[in-house]
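Suppose you are handed a protein chain with no further information: no name, no annotation, nothing but its sequence. What can you learn? This example shows the usual starting point.
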Amino acid sequence: MKKRESFLFLIELMISILIFFVVAAICLLIFSKAHRMNCSSQELNLASRAEANLAELISSAGSMEEAEKLIREAFPEAEFSDQTGKEQAGEDQIGEDRAEGPDVSLVIPYDSQLKQTEKRASYQLTAVIHTENGMVHADMHFYPVDRKGQNTGDSVYDLAIRSVIPDTWEGETS
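A reasonable first move is to predict its three-dimensional structure. Written in structure tokens, the prediction is:
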């Protein structure tokens, strides 16, 4: 009789331990999913903030030159290109004597902690800013990149702004 009681106790203990491990595995899956959701939420929040900051600079500028100057001050790691894609050096002006179309193209690199960086980027904020029909158009995309700097998938956040050109910009649209 004593042997039977110890056998039942052992089976009961094994079943309890099995239930504990199943519940622990479920909890780990839930915590893992919560962590991934937190990371993607943080990524989205920081991406939208970076794009909103850039949009505010563009909207507040009185000219394309001023917009470029403000962007260079706020985002010192930004790499600017002209409409043909050639890299610009130093303080070249972007909006000089151009027809309507792409005036400013820029890339701002971010590290894995979503901080601006000059080193290897894990994310990039790209923007194309141009004037057309009396309006400033800016299309911005924030996306992850691989070690070669190539887009690795869907954009984390996209923002397109359209703004009426202030009177001081009028001379740049013709």
